[in-house]
Amino acid sequence: MLKIVSFILLFICTTTVYALSAPGIAVTAAGDGKVRITVLQGAEASGYNVYFNGSYLSTQRLEQGSDNFVFDGVPGAYCVASFASVDGVVDYSPCSASVTLQTTDPAPSAPGNFRATLYSSTVAELFWDASIDDGSVELYEITRDSQLVASVNGRSYFEPSLAANSGYNYSIVAVDNESNRSDAATLNLDTGTGSNQPAPVDSGDSSVPSVPGNLRGTFYSSTAAEIFWDASFDDNGVASYEIRRDGEVIAQIDGRSYWEPAIDRNQSYFYEVVAVDFNGNRSNAAQLTLGNGAATEDNQEPQQSNQLALQLPANRFNLEEGASAALFVPFSVVRSSDNNRAVNLSLRAEHPSSESEFSYQIEPSNLSQSASGVTLEVRLAVGAAPLDFHERRFILSATDGDNVQEARIIFDVKPVKAPDVYLLAGQSNMEGSSEMFAKNSNPGGPDELIDRIKQLNVKSNSQDVFQQEWQFTDEFANTSTPRFIIAEDPLHEPRAPGRFSKEAQFIGMGLSFAKAALPHTSQQIYLVPAAWSATGFCAGASDGLSWNAEQTPENFLGGKLLADRALTRLNMTLRETGGVFRGILWHQGEADSNNNDCANRYQDNLKKLVSRFRTEALEDPRGAGARGPDAKIPFIVGSMSKGSDDRASFASFGATKSIVDTVHRNIASSISHAEFSNNDDLQPPAYPCGSGSCIHFGAAAYRLMGTRYHDALRRIIAR
């Protein structure tokens, strides 16, 4: 207390003359009870003293390349005094103008780029870019002509029954997990002229977004890395982030990470990330040097003391993901001869990303005056997303109250040795119905076989093969010999015994999905084909040949044989490969779009099916906690074809089909860990339709759809 009083008296006595000007600041909420102060002027100072309601609160310093700092705080009045050392003397500025913060929980940014597409004079779809929030955006409220018409968790809304030659006024508001509401984005839609102009906005905006925070990078292998950053803030929302490597623009994205699959860890790369708002205003660049021994995270140099010492057997250890036994690191705390105080021990990550699935225990965490031996016990559980080889950095800290001694510990993470397993389900567009002879599996061709991508060698979808109900759940009736093969299109056709390739020459989307996933895993990928064309939840010509999770009393619904069969195939693969269930790929809906009762039950039936898959899948290396209706097993759905050619047009959906389509587009609001893949643009002439009619996508579309499904998977993982 005496030291604090002395400091305050010293500050008061020296406020008559200032060598530094008062800084300019902006004070905003950072969420989770935190406050962000952005230094607008005076960023050359060594540090900043923060005052709250007239009293000293804390001292803060800017990280390199950043113009803001974040700390625990509450609503109230803040001012900041800067200080710097000049010729060995510390000079202080007067306090900045006081800025009052009303809340520490900010509202989301307004949804960006609100726009519409007219599919006909009565059918339209609204689209918007994601709002940014410190927590999570739970839903978007859509208003048409001042009437609330929908609350969705996706980023599009389908309007199947508008009036022709009419005008509509739309607004959309983002709502976060604390019920904070964004400003509204607005749009005028004219179904007569096809215009869809956003409502006028103030184009005089000249304020720039804040610098992207906490720019960092991680190498997953000697050639693959990923950079990450925290969201920038802007009064009109951030539209995108521009990424430059060594001065060259390499990407413009609306996410907060960028994947580098082909760089050399032994070389040095200089990255810059700039935030751009919807009026084209650009932030200053966040900067990072990656590779060649450069820091891959925000390295915090360990503190040192001559009163304490930490003795470890090494500073680098191998940590295996999902290992049955914990990693034990014994170490000792050595005190100076005149120090007999108790010591407290703790471990902290150098970056929050290192904490994912990581757990530890220090025993004992409090050392008595005479004790010195300690054990650090560490585990890394298997998460929802596959890992590559990488390192995680932590700081081990010992303190006796006055003295702090720290040491860096690096864990080299070895991914769990278990393949990634994906279930492919639905009807013909998941089964694959491209143009005949579209397959190009020659070396270097788009459908080339990859040794690390395997599949269950399933038998053909034929009622000549599946004549009896028991055959749907019999493993031998489901598979050909050998049981597992290198994945080859068409995935749902078998490779005959004794042959080295399949005879059929059409493709689907599954193989291109796996190829897109391959750079993000060090393991093999196993695909489990389970789709069957012209099937759904609705009763068909063969009532049992349906996807219901359970038997239902309604006559308009079919049976559950395809759900039973899918689980049989999935569990067979999990058991025999020891793999991890990484996701469900679903493309279906057409078979439920011809019956109003089936369409109205579609969302509920889909939820039940996903719940059953997640619950009844065999336990894998993630453990029992990764099973259950809401287990984090990603579920991805895709849009139905809107293609047209001289055979038929599917550009406009009828009322019943629009019900099913709306379920797909809003899937993230009805099923946990789910995402929608929009493929509306994959139409002729650029993307020819597939077999039979344009209800089927063609080969060029399927190859792109696979990568889009994987993009959707990555969006789920990033949440």
Helices and strands in order:
Elements: H1 2-13, E1 24-31, E2 34-41, E3 47-52, E4 55-60, E5 68-72, E6 76-86, E7 89-92, E8 99-101, E9 112-118, E10 124-129, E11 137-144, E12 147-152, E13 156-159, E14 167-176, E15 185-190, E16 196-198, E17 213-219, E18 225-230, E19 238-245, E20 248-253, E21 257-260, E22 269-277, E23 286-290, E24 308-311, E25 316-320, E26 327-335, E27 343-349, E28 358-363, E29 366-367, E30 373-380, E31 390-399, E32 404-414, E33 420-426, H2 428-431, E34 453-458, H3 475-478, E35 479-486, H4 510-517, E36 525-529, H5 561-577, E37 580-587, H6 596-616, E38 635-638, H7 655-665, H8 667-670, E39 674-677, H9 699-718
Parallel strand pairs: 25-32, 33-36, 33-37, 34-36, 37-38, 38-39
Antiparallel strand pairs: 1-2, 2-5, 3-4, 3-6, 6-7, 6-8, 9-10, 10-13, 11-12, 11-14, 14-15, 15-16, 17-18, 18-21, 19-20, 19-22, 22-23, 24-26, 26-30, 27-29, 27-31, 28-30, 31-32, 34-35
Helix pairs in contact: 4-9, 6-7
